[in-house]
Amino acid sequence: MDAGQRIGIVGAGAWGLSAALALAETGFTNVHVWERENAGSGNTARAAGLVSTHLREEQDIRWVLDTRRRFEALRAWGTEQGLPSAPHAFHQVGNVTISTKNDEFKLEQIRGRVLRAGGKAEFLSAAELARPAWRLKSTAHSSGLFSSDDGYVEAGDLIDLLQARVRSLGVGVHTSQAVGVDVTGSDVRGVTTTAGVEPCDQVLVAAGAWTKALLARSGLPLPVKPYRTQLAQLEFEHDASLPIIHDGEQGVYARADGPHRILVGDGTEHVESDPDAFNEGTDRGFIEKIAKSVSRRWQRGEAARYRTGWAGLCVGTPDRNAVIGPDPRVKHLHLMTGDNGFGLMRCLSLGALVAARLQGKMSPGAEICAPKRLDFGLKDFVIREGFEL
Ligand SMILES: Cc1cc2nc3c(=O)[nH]c(=O)nc-3n(C[C@H](O)[C@H](O)[C@H](O)COP(=O)(O)OP(=O)(O)OC[C@H]3O[C@@H](n4cnc5c(N)ncnc54)[C@H](O)[C@@H]3O)c2cc1C
Q1: Which of 112, 195, 268, 363 has the fewest C-beta atoms lying within 10 Å of its C-beta?
Q2: Gap from CA of 47 to ligand 1 centroid (Å)
């Protein structure tokens, strides 16, 4: 490996910074990240931050578990440095997926995957779901799956830690600088700034929902679709030990946001959105759905009060796998996008995958994310939620 080669990363969201961290930790000494606004100000800032092993694919669960281990190392470093964000970066509150008797088999399947991947998962009966501390209303037909090690991250704290860590390792983070990719023939020369070309030996585009438009400007189509999803913050008294709830009966997810608030999400639109022109607020229909779900699911849920809400974009791919690795069309160009709505929880592990690929190595899962699997001429595909089981 040529540790001194100049590597340019476009985008300082959770994915771009995680890649920068893994590259610097691997020994790359000349890594630069360009960010058009502030680090973490893209869709990372809008995430609920769930770190959940209740996923569709075993490999994704492995990445979540690995990311959690890496969070711990990052947190330990941050604590040593006295960073205020370190103690709050991960809240291990557990995670419950609630299902009805009709699709209980899904819980069986998830449990099998979680255990095979090395995580924890136990069944809960309707009576166990109704434990007093959680104040859940469960019907005789509800059942649940509980993973005690899952939890959530505060995206802002994670970004603070990541940014401090990569800077401490010598990574250049250049904020308020929108850049393009300078592709000449079938090679990449660097990134384009308002001042000219910044030469790079390799470029990684980790611009989230903006990746598609950015590559299109270099004549490189990408079959991904940014799609909108929503989150509401409700004023609601609950026990501080409330786990993450994936409510299969109501079609929403929720987590505590301090002792007096919860975040409740869904409202996903299965149509492509323009990252520079979409409705960043919540829809009336979404707020009504959330209100109904919370009053059906929680004791005194009807007293919950809508405080605020927002929408953000996730990036869908035709097969719901991420797009990570070298672009087969252009030498020295690498891609890192296609979070399919659950990118934060896998960020550090996927960063390590990028670092391996930049050294020409394949790590587990690299094949399923490889850009070369894509049909770059694909005109359309159906967006499906990555989180959906
Ligand atoms: C409402 C909502 C809830 C979510 N909840 C969860 C959850 O609970 N758990 C989970 O794991 N994931 C969740 N996600 C998904 C998560 O937010 C994403 O997977 C993750 O943030 C992706 O990070 P990223 O770095 O790819 O994208 P981003 O954070 O969007 O980063 C891309 C960066 O590139 C920058 N950029 C763009 N163009 C340029 C340019 N030309 N030059 C320089 N910089 C540029 C942008 O400003 C941005 O900062 C949620 C998403 C939404 C919208």
Answers
A1: 195
A2: 8
